[in-house]
Amino acid sequence: RLALGRTGSIEETVTIISRELGDLKEFRVELEKYLKSAEARLRGAVTGVGIVRFNPFEGQGGNQSAAVAFLDERGAGMVLSTLYSRDRVAVYVKPIEEGASAFELTAEEKAAIVRAKERIAQLQIPAVKKPTL
Questions:
Q1: Between vectors from CA 127 to CA 98 and to CA 120, what angle results, nearest 5°?
Q2: What is the pTM of this model?
């Protein structure tokens, strides 16, 4: 039962197992390359979105304006703000690098960034220990 191959000899079984082990090691190397590539792409994908609705005009209207932050795992992305009034809508976009912007951010934009970072933190998967062969 333990013998493999046509002849059923131990030598042939060891040869077959050795070849299959080599194939598995080669597959593992290719799989690790693929996973590193996939992880690099995922780090650049938007994984955190934070939304803050607000009323920029005290005493009139509702929370029709909004600040929305779109961030990847590195804290890069953008924050988009809209200011709504009865006669017009203004839209502002500011780039974000490492969770901050070179442009001055409003309190609502900062809050949207914090919410996006919190969402990213919720989605973090703990590192998996690499098995040894």
A1: 35
A2: 0.71
